[in-house]
Write a structure and sequence with these properties.
By secondary structure, the chain is an all-alpha fold. It is built from 3 helices and no strands. It starts with 6 loop residues before the first helix and ends in a 10-residue tail after the last helix.
Length: 104
């Protein structure tokens, strides 16, 4: 379907996909990484949440730059999905009350 489109339409779909990746995928990755950082940061809980939240703005900016710098769109989507899944999985394992997190 995409191969049968004109070069202009293909370019527009590519830009639209990158914008969607930046808005949705970038937000998902940044929020998952923020939770993970808050869990592993060796600070009191409130300070770790605050520090990881402040760092999330720089992280989101870096993710946006990466999304628009990578040449292949497939690499962008795969990178976002895999990185978000890894951050989410590690956060889930480290949460208090989980199998590895310990506690109640």
């Amino acid at each position: 379907m995409i191969a049968s489109l004109s070069p202009t339409a293909r370019y527009r779909w590519s830009v639209a996909s990158r914008v969607l990746a930046a808005v949705v995928g970038g937000y998902a990755l940044t929020s998952a990484a923020t939770v993970l950082l808050a869990l592993v940061w060796p600070l009191p809980q409130a300070e770790a949440v605050l520090a990881s939240t402040m760092l999330s703005f720089a992280l989101y900016t870096g993710v946006l730059v990466w999304i628009f710098a990578v040449r292949r769109l497939r690499t962008v989507w795969l990178g976002l999905v895999i990185a978000t899944a890894v951050c989410t999985g590690l956060s889930w394992l480290l949460l208090p009350g989980s199998v590895l997190g310990g506690g109640v």
